[in-house]
Amino acid sequence: MPSKQMPPAHPFDDDKLHEECGIFGAVGVKDAANFVALGLHALQHRGQEAGGIVAHDPEQGFNNARRFGYVRDNFTSQKIMETLPGPLAIGHVRYSTAGTKGQTAIRDVQPFFGEFSMGGAAIAHNGNITNANALRRELIERGSIFQSSSDSECIIHLMARSLQRNIPERMEDALRRVEGAFSVVAMTRTKLIGVRDPLGVRPLVLGKVGDGWCLASETCALDIIGAEFLREIEPGEMVVITAERGVESHFPFRPQPSKFCIFEHVYFSRPDSILGGRSVYETREAIGRELAKESPVEADLVCPVPDSGTPAAIGYSLQSGIPYAMGIIRNQYMGRTFIEPTEQIRNMGVRLKLNVNRALIEGKRIILVDDSVVRGTTSRKIKEMILDAGAKEVHFRIASPPTAWPCFYGVDTPQRDKLLAATMTEEEMRDHLAVDSLKFISLDGLYRAVGEAKGRDKGCPQYCDACFSGEYPVQPADMLEQGFELKPAAE
Description:
The chain is of the alpha+beta class and 491 residues long. The chain contains 18 helices and 27 strands. Helix 9 (280-294) crosses helix 10 (310-320).
């Protein structure tokens, strides 16, 4: 099937980091694919490019459906869902990581399926394999024939070449060869399998729904199907779940200190999810409070850049005593097919997505709270809109430290020279954005906000914060091979 170009979810805003996958699985429930479709709908923020579901029925065997676009447009019709019967299913929503950037073939859409000597298996992967190029070369030299450009397909081929006796053991064997970040949901004819990499970079949670079980990237996906959130899958843990025997857990990897992605707290996860036993919303509000302590400024209103800046703006307002206001209104119906993004339309900038509430803004000193600054293009446009509406002053407060390094663990990050913080100091960024002041939360402040009372322990940070610090917990082998330079040890 020929490649089909898919526009970004919001074609006028490429100035955010994108978490690139959401995964969900269910076993022991009637018509499991329906539960998976609902779970993927709740995880749509993690990937809007494409989605897929694989289901197994004892009589009909394995069936799958893979489509471009939103879950609501593809997996809500009875006609499609009737082709996915059975009590066991897994699914995936995608925003391309490794693989073809900007132009995706249907063959790259997960879950991937393979037939092994002991039966079929499907796999869906959230994260990024940092040694995928080396693995791919080795596998091709040994006769493997790849069907996609995705790094995740390496796992299927490694499983096929394993000499272990069953599929869960083959998956363990395969994942021991893999470097980087992976949260995986997989299925055989009878088993639902979930695995997190030893560092636990990407999230995965376990839930109970009726007499069945489910796995998901976030707890908000459990809520939509009425499932009980039981616990997070531990870093380095594999769970094998059957309708008859329930959850069996073991730890096939060498234990390592956890390095959960701190940006999940800042932006990626939905605010109604639970991470580390704590509400994401409460954490983001705490980030806003910490930001107000570190970087106060006299102003009349605190306004979020919707929607991701809202909880932090509320926290900033509560801590500072400056009134909170919805100074910018988001057009909630801005979809990917609204209008062809011609150059004339692109020049409208973010106005198709956001509009300034002029009656509130005019004549006021405004604090704008956003989650991050990546390229800075959107920040400049929003500042111009605020000034055009008559604001006296514009102060940016950013609920994350400066993003100065790319992520190689499953996040779509621009090349380092495209990151504003990689080439400018904070003062230079302020001048570039032409705002009255610009302040980022410190890395220590972010750690305090997420529950590390003493801030960041430089000897052994509890999170992966490489996008801020340049300290990568797993060396990005493929990128080093391509000439990427790590942060000097003495810096």
